Amino acid sequence: MNIMLFHSTYGPRPAVRAAADRLRAAGHEVWTPDLFDGRTFDTAEESMAFTAELGKDELLKRAVLAAAPYSERGLVYAGFSLGASVAQTLALGDEKARGLLLLHGTSDIAPNAHVDGLPVQLHVAEPDPFETDDWLSAWYLGMRRAGADVEVYRYAGAGHLYTDPGLPDHDEEAAEATWQVALGFLTTLQ
User: Fold this and answer.
1) Half-sphere exposure of 11 toward its Cβ, with a 13 Å CA cutoff?
2) Looking at residue 44, what is its pLDDT?
3) pTM
4) Which DSSP letter does residue 110 get?
5) Mean pLDDT, residues 159-166 taken together
6) Taking Cα atoms as reference points, which of 115, 106, 103, 101 lies closest to residue 140?
7) Average pLDDT of 111-115?
8) What SS3 state is found at 95?
9) Which among 23, 156, 129 is positioned nearest to 79, based on CA atoms?
10) How far does Cα 158 stand from its chain's mean position?
11) Which of these, 15, 88, 136, 154, is most buried using a 10 Å CB contact count?
């Protein structure tokens, strides 16, 4: 599969490169665009301030420009937290998208969004302060209305960005379980 993997609001941290390497080792071609011009952050507050300063429109513009040269190949869009939000937005707007892998995040769904059976897999902590139960229920129903084929996996007790070993949220057991399920999902898309 051709995978476009977007980093979290912390920027292109080593965990993103490690995830891309893991996907490549499983036989996938992976691109990891840097939407922050090399900036990385150690705290959520710093990263959110930078993201707010950059602005959602600029962030999406950078993501579209990064994906455009490869979209004809039929991409699987993937991302971590903020990157998952970006991936979702792009996948719902790309008729050639092959799948959507969301790690730790979702996004609003445009009222006119329509996909024809797009395979979607979401992995999220339970509870997650950024992905509350009410939000996830509404998101799931919205994705189904849009025509997506959605699977949701929740990881009790894990922190928000539990797949990043460099952050306090890291949960090795939940991270490994996530990667096993996600790699299986990707094989079904081939």
Assistant:
1) 18
2) 86
3) 0.97
4) -
5) 96
6) 106
7) 92
8) coil
9) 23
10) 17
11) 88
Which residue has 């306090």 as its token pair? 168
- Which alpha helices (DSSP H) does the chain contain, by range? 14-25, 44-54, 56-67, 82-92, 133-146, 172-188
Q: Which among 34, 44, 30 has a CA at the least distance from the CA of 12?
A: 34
Phi-psi region of 173 (alpha: psi -120 to 50; beta: other; left: phi over 0): alpha
Contacts for 1 with CB less than 8 Å, ≥ 6 apart: 28, 29, 76, 98, 99, 186, 189, 190
**Which pair of tokens denotes residue 169?**
């949220």
Residue where the block lists tokens 């090795």: 172
> What pLDDT digit, counting tens, does each position of 4-18 carry?
999 999 999 999 999
- Is the backbone of residue 181 left (phi > 0), alpha (psi -120 to 50) or beta? alpha
Question: What is d(CA 88, CA 59) in angstroms, rounded to the nearest whole number?
Answer: 13
Residue with tokens 């959110």: 48
Residue 64: both structure tokens together: 């579209």
Compute the distance between CA of residue 91 and CA of residue 110 in angstroms, rounded to an integer. Answer: 12
